[in-house]
Amino acid sequence: MDIATMHAHGEIGRIQASYMAEVRRKRLYGGLTLLLFTVLMVAGFVIVDERSAGGFWDGLHRLDDYMSEVVAEAWQRRAELPGLIAKYFPALVETVNIAAVSTLLGVLGGLVLSLLSTRRLARWPRLIPLFRRLSDIMRALPEIVIALMLIFVMGGGPVPAVIAIAIHTAGALGKLFSEVAENADLKPVEGLASTGANWSQQMILGVLSQVAPNYISYGLLRFEINVRASAILGFVGAGGIGYELRNAMSWGPGRFAEAAAIFVLLFGTIVFFDQLSSRMRNRLTEGEGQ
User: Fold this and answer.
1) Pair 99, 226: CB distance under 8 Å
2) What distance in Å separates the CA atoms of residue 97 and residue 94, rounded to the nearest whole number?
């Protein structure tokens, strides 16, 4: 074996040893992270269990009591379910309207935030950090917190829910839209600028025409999320079918059939919009069915 071959084998051995050392280091870090996560989860569970009105393990055997009572009463009154579904259908329409309006407002807000916080596209580059922090704050605040504050000021109803969901949606979509816009081709923008087009015209004609399918896809995905969010906000008095569900659940036995009818409506609506939105997004992003 000549010197060059020996040197090559030695170099390969050093590379293999370095690679294995890096693998062991990553495994160690991964194991320590998993251990820390497990310890935090166990400690958090113990604290919550101790501070709860009833212990988790003490009440575990009653986990299915509520749903079994709902199903039993709904089965006894199954002949009334079609009428109850028709009764609560207007509340469902209100919930869908809340989700649709808040999504539309959120998409418009996210569109503006994304263009103002995207490098190479922003109207005022020095204010990019400001618009990005604004977007962070808007999506960091849970919808239910914003809704509770608005209900305290404005009273119950769908308007606080629309505003709360729209704020959170604008913050979330502002981040997603900005990431898409950063990958847009700037040649159309430069061409429009050379013809004297203003910033708005450059963004609409040069950028939005490229990223529209992705923007619409994200908007549809957000609409799915907002349908569920609008139902949840009904529990705090923001109107819609969630408000009716809270009332039905609060009354307990005797109103469980109403709760079951609302569950059926919610489940069917969420599945319907999930499937519809997924199909539309696939056609936009992948060209399926075309």
Assistant:
1) yes
2) 5
